[in-house]
Structures are given as C-alpha cells and as structure tokens.
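Retro notes
What went well: the complex prediction finally ran end to end.
Inputs used:
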Amino acid sequence: MHTLQVSLGERSYPIHIASGLLDRADLLAPHVKAAQAVVVTNETVAPLYLQRLKNTLEKAGVSVIPVILPDGERFKTWETLNLIFDALLGAHCERSTPLIALGGGVIGDMGGFAAACYQRGMPFIQVPTTLLSLVDSSVGGKTAINHPLGKNMIGAFYQPRLVLADIATLDTLPERELRAGLAEVIKYGLIRDPAFLVWLESNLEKLLARDRESLIYAVHRSCANKAEVVAADERESGERALLNLGHTFGHAIETGMGYGAWLHGEAVAAGTMIASELSRLLGWLTADDVERVRRIFSRAGLPVVAPGLGVARYLELMRHDKKVQDGRLRLVLLRSVGQAVLSDVAREDQIGEAIELMCT
Amino acid sequence: MHTLQVSLGERSYPIHIASGLLDRADLLAPHVKAAQAVVVTNETVAPLYLQRLKNTLEKAGVSVIPVILPDGERFKTWETLNLIFDALLGAHCERSTPLIALGGGVIGDMGGFAAACYQRGMPFIQVPTTLLSLVDSSVGGKTAINHPLGKNMIGAFYQPRLVLADIATLDTLPERELRAGLAEVIKYGLIRDPAFLVWLESNLEKLLARDRESLIYAVHRSCANKAEVVAADERESGERALLNLGHTFGHAIETGMGYGAWLHGEAVAAGTMIASELSRLLGWLTADDVERVRRIFSRAGLPVVAPGLGVARYLELMRHDKKVQDGRLRLVLLRSVGQAVLSDVAREDQIGEAIELMCT
Ligand SMILES: NC(=O)c1ccc[n+]([C@@H]2O[C@H](COP(=O)([O-])OP(=O)(O)OC[C@H]3O[C@@H](n4cnc5c(N)ncnc54)[C@H](O)[C@@H]3O)[C@@H](O)[C@H]2O)c1
Ligand SMILES: NC(=O)c1ccc[n+]([C@@H]2O[C@H](COP(=O)([O-])OP(=O)(O)OC[C@H]3O[C@@H](n4cnc5c(N)ncnc54)[C@H](O)[C@@H]3O)[C@@H](O)[C@H]2O)c1
Ligand SMILES: [Zn+2]
Ligand SMILES: [Zn+2]
C-alpha cells in the first residue's frame, strides 16, 4: 500500500492507495470514531460496492446510514443535496457523525459540500471509484454543486479526513469513463511533470488495458502532484489555478452542450487542445508541441477537436466562469510542454482564433 | 468611534462601533477594492438605509448591485438563498466581488452563507441593523439557513472582513425587536461578565429609552465578550458553546411554535429561564439567583415563562438540535450567575421537571 500525506497543517490527511482497500476496517476505523456513519453513493455504485463498505464498517463497530442518490452530473444540484440533508436530519445525525462519499467526482463533490454545510461541518471521508475522482476530485478539498448558470458555482473548500483509493474499483468502470479520467492524469504531465508525461507516452496502452500496477503508479504520481500543488495553495490564490489547464474552455463546452453530453474529462481534453493552440499563437509552443499534446489525448481515445458552438458563445460562457478577474479572461496556458502558466496576455481575438482553429 | 479587533490570525477583522457609520466611505473603502459590490438586504431595511449605503459606496467609486429579499425568519431558506445566487450570477459577479449584508441576523446569516458558498467564497462585510445582530450574529462568522427539520442546520463558519456597527440604525427598530436583542446582551452578563450584568441592572431603562451612549456601551461590551470567546474557540469545540445559554430550549420553542411566532431573543429569554431552573435543581443556583435572572428579563419586557408544548415535545425537538453529542443532551447551564458551564449531568427527568416548572 502507498500512503501520501496532503500537508495542510491541522487539516492534513492521508491518501491510501492500493487494490482492495474497501475491505480494510483498520484504515477506516481511526477516522470513524462514532457509532454510525453516513455513506453517500448513487444507484450505479451502490449495487457494486456499498455492501462491501458496509461490512467493513460494521466490522469496525459502525452502523451505516446509506444515502443513495440518482446517478449523473445533471443531479449535482441543490435538490439532490437536499436529499442528503433530509436523510441526515431524518436519521438525527450529529455534527460528529462522519460522512463517507463512495463514488465518482459527482458523489465526492456533493457529499463533500453536504458534509461542509451540515451543522457547519461534519467529518468527511472520500472513497473515490472513478479514475477522475481517484486522481483529481477526491484530493484537495474542493466541493461544489452546479447552478443553472454555471458549473460548480456553489461550493466550499472542505478537506476530507482520509482518502481511501481502492484501485480495484476501476475494474467495473465503463471504458469511456476510464478514458475521461486519463485526461486529468495527462494534465499533470502537461502542467508540471514532463517526466511523467514521458512515462505516460510509454505506458498508455497498459493503462487502457487496466494493468493494475500501471494504474497504481499513475494514480499515485497524479495524487502526489495534486497534493503538492494543494499544500502550496489550498484556496487557489496562485499555483493551484494551473490545475485548471483546459478547464475554462472545457466548462464552456460542458455548459454549452448541456451538462452530461460531454464528460468532464472529454471537455478538458478538447479544452486543453484550444489552450495549446492559443499557446502556439502566443509563440510559446511549436506546432510539433501541439501535435504531441494532440497525440497523447487521441491515443487515449479523447476528443481533440471542440464542438462548434461559435466563438461568441464560447466567450460568453467563459465570462461566466470563475476564472475571470476584473473582467479580463485569465487562462492557464502552456509556456512549454510540461510547464503551465496563468496569464491574461491573450487578446480576445487570439482566443477567438484558437477556438476557431480547434472547432469542428 | 470604538474599534474592536476579532483576533483570528489571517482571518482577523475590525468591528467599528459608533453612530452614523453608514456614511463613512473611508471605513468601507479599504475592504471594498472592487468596481462593484453586492448589497443584500430586505424589503423593510432597503427603504430605510439602502440609498445611504449606496451613496457612500458610490463616493468610494463602487457601484452597487442591490439584492432585496423578502423579510422574515421564514424566508431564511434555501429558496431565498438561491435568489442571491441568481442575482450574483445574473450580474456576472466574480469571486473577488464583495458582498455586504445590510440588515438583521436573518440577512447577515443568509448573506454570509451565500458569500461563503458563491464560487467557494467571496469577501463579506456585515452592516448589522438590529440590536441582536449588532451584539451577536454579526460577530463570529456563523452563517446558516434553516431546514424544515431544524433551525440553522445548513451553514458555514465564514468570517467577515469588517463589521460596521452603526448604532443610529437602532432608531427605527421596532420596540419588540429591541427587547429581543436585549436577551443576548443580558446573556453575556449571565455567562461570563457579572460586572456587566450589574451595569445592565442599573442601566436597563436607559437602553429601553434608546439612550445612544448607553447603547454604544452595551454593544461595545457585548461585542468585546463575543470577540474574546470566538478568538479562543472559532469553531465551537469548547468555550464558544457557552454562548448558547438558553438556546437549546429556545430553539425548541422557536421550532415548536413555528418559525417567527416567537422572536429568537424571546425564545432565548424563556429558554434561559428553563436553564436557570435546571441549574437550581442541580444545586448550582439558589432560588434568589433564579429570581434575579427572571427580574432582569422581565424588566426588559421579555417572556419569562415558556410555551406549554409538553415535556415530550420539548425533548424531541431538542434531540434534533445540534447540541446533542453521542445521544446525550449537553446543555449550557449556570454554575453561578455570571458563570456558565457546558454539562451533560442533568438527567432527562430533571430536564423535564425544569421545563414543567417554567411552562405556562
Ligand atoms: N472537486 C474537484 O476538485 C474536482 C475536480 C475534477 C472534477 N470534479 C467534478 O467531478 C465530476 C466528474 O467526476 P467523475 O468523472 O468521477 O464522474 P461521475 O461521478 O459522474 O462518475 C462517472 C460514472 O461512473 C459511475 N461509476 C463510478 N464509479 C464506478 C465504478 N467503480 N464502476 C462503475 N461505474 C462507476 C458513476 O455512477 C457515473 O455514472 C464533475 O462533476 C466535476 O465537476 C471535481
Ligand atoms: N450567526 C449567529 O451567530 C447568530 C447569532 C444569533 C442569532 N442569529 C440569527 O439571527 C436571526 C435573528 O436576527 P434578528 O433578531 O436581527 O432578526 P431579523 O433579521 O429578522 O430582524 C428583525 C426585524 O427587524 C427588521 N429590521 C432590521 N433592521 C431594522 C432597522 N434598523 N429598523 C427597522 N427595522 C429593522 C427586519 O427587517 C426584521 O423584520 C435568527 O435567524 C438567528 O438564528 C445568528
Ligand atoms: Zn477537471
Ligand atoms: Zn442567539
């Protein structure tokens, strides 16, 4: 088992990474010092893993209150969040009752936000079961729900007490979701870890074949990158923003196409292509660099062209995004392959040109 | 002008207390470094003070986005909170846009929770306009909304950058609201400041007559007490719980009677009488002590008997309250007049007896 520590002073917490951790009562018990715990999951994940987690908790003397939500990004709303609150209040949960999120990023983001708000904060544990949530959303304490006018607009910074990363849960993950998760893995290589990018270029097929050791390595190295960034900048006032490579464009794609049509990772891949093209227009990347980025995404089966929403619509959607500061678009761009920067030097016509060039 | 500092490390902030502060652009400007600011207020307070605050902000070069909510505790809900989010998103507010709450505790609690959640946190300023919000809710960073199953169940700890306490706003406060606010003022004397209680016993009539100097003194001393407690225990893991004297019983009264029937301060006064009676049953207060508590509340025009909901209903409602730990009721009681303790020694039959004795 690998263990990483996210260093955030009194809010520090461990990430345990291995196969089969769902059965490890010894890892959960130190963080669940209560007679009962809430497990928030969804209709897809519950039949696969809820009973096992329940058995493990019961072994540790903890009885489980399950909250089973509908599945899907379109349910990442206040209405669904309220289902969690109703269950917590219905079961008379106390502020000391731990809440465990068992599922992908949607469950983690909603479970975390519910834990942050219920009685102003209850202990929170992440048990991520998608590649995206293993390498990204479960680490770092961002929680949120969507608003009809924008993704992740309502939320909190709220750190978990523990992340239990059971790689074996990836066995049941649909192919398309695995590929979407790879977009965020590749992202770490692009923004700050060029050696990891080289490793990915050599091992992509093994990851796609779900080779367990390769997956453990990729999750571990991704989490290590994310943990470093988060430790340096918990509330995204600086370096942490670099994790949003491709995301401002990506969120525009997700919103513009209607939540759920494009997976988050797919939108991030296409968005990263626009960001790469813009970096080329600014003279930072060569055409070969852009081609290298395109190749790795395309080998991972991810979209490398963006949907043709029209430049005006992209810009409108991006202005709603929270990466706007004093009205000027601040974007994460690539200074080189392996080094991202946050910059507002791109003029609107250049942004528009990059979008045009990358759209179908 | 008096200025107090709430000492919370990098989250420290000043409380300015005086008459006429709504006009002081110089005090607001250092905390509103943006081209626009949101002012959240309600239909009652807006006609009284919104234009003045707007003029002051405009003098500082800040344009105002007003959000005018319906008035009342029954609107302290998710639906109303969403009206704030709709306005913020509609006006393309950024995470750097400051949100100013202008009103009583309901506006402060909702405005603060909206500021905590919008894009995971925007700068927040409190401009309290009721006695209760001046002496209690605007200081300390507790924000919340209600849930049908319990008061203040959903919220966040989120500190303001500034509290602007303009005592002149009390001129227009309805008599009943002024008296309700006095319940929280008296509370500070009862739980930790016996000398202040003696001062209150001598100056209560002046406060009721809205003598400005007396009000400034009472607000200042109340805020100083609250600031000390909050600085020592921001997230209510210890001493801060003592601020809830009378509140567990009070919340049961508020919920049991239907939100809004009893004012918060009225419920706290009656709840404090039950807590005092229970403290007497435990041998901590004398009958004379209880009488002293009754006299000061009754001189302030506050209820000193609780509504007859029945003991079973009280206990049921109290179990929903967040002051329950591991199933046992932890209550704030009085060791002596001027010194509160958090204790779970009271047996359920004693709690029931105290309720019976204090009910109509
Ligand atoms: N908080 C953050 O820092 C952060 C970072 C990135 C993304 N996100 C958020 O994460 C969300 C996307 O997360 P996601 O990609 O995990 O999507 P998801 O949670 O919707 O999961 C994808 C699908 O896989 C299913 N599933 C989950 N685990 C499975 C398993 N082991 N076997 C079979 N099926 C399984 C889910 O039920 C769902 O249908 C977005 O809402 C995004 O905004 C948050
Ligand atoms: N956050 C905390 O730490 C904390 C502490 C105590 C209470 N609270 C909360 O505060 C709320 C009660 O606050 P409140 O007593 O201020 O009630 P409130 O906000 O409802 O205000 C009382 C009434 O006075 C009106 N009003 C406000 N200012 C006025 C003015 N200057 N002139 C005329 N009318 C005015 C309001 O519109 C309202 O009708 C409750 O929801 C309670 O839960 C929070
Ligand atoms: Zn992402
Ligand atoms: Zn109170």
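What we learned: Chain B has a mean pLDDT of 95.
What to try next: split runs per interface for comparison.
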